[in-house]
Backbone:
């Protein structure tokens, strides 16, 4: 047996292809990726090659941006500037509680007037 090292050209020849090293994109680059896919100026493959990332990264950036845009548009209720969806929902719930409280008070007054106040005996 000889102790000849394996030539570097043959190392890993039978192994799986090497994965790309993770690369973090800046928010401005992610926005550019999203707008490029929206305008169809570049394909996902071209964008992945341009930024040296995987195509699944491009897809996930687009999905995240789309969901963020939908959430922002949902929170933008006309006439209620600057309020989140939770704040709008909380205000609606408080208004419903006040309405129900007023209804209970009215019903209690009607019951008192109809039945009158009985003595404890």
Residues:
């Amino acid at each position: 047996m000889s102790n000849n090292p394996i030539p570097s050209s043959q190392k890993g020849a039978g192994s799986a292809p090497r994965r790309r090293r993770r690369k973090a994109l800046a928010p401005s680059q992610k926005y550019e990726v999203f707008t490029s896919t929206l305008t169809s100026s570049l394909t996902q493959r071209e964008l992945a090659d341009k930024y040296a990332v995987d195509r699944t990264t491009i897809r996930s950036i687009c999905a995240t941006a789309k969901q963020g845009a939908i959430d922002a548009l949902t929170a933008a209720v006309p006439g209620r500037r600057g309020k989140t969806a939770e704040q709008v929902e909380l205000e609606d719930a408080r208004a419903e509680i006040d309405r129900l409280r007023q209804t209970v008070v009215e019903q209690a007054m009607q019951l008192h007037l109809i039945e009158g106040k009985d003595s404890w005996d």
Observations:
- The mean pLDDT is 79.
- The helical segments are 27-39, 44-51, 55-75, 85-115.
- The chain is about 60% helix and 0% strand.
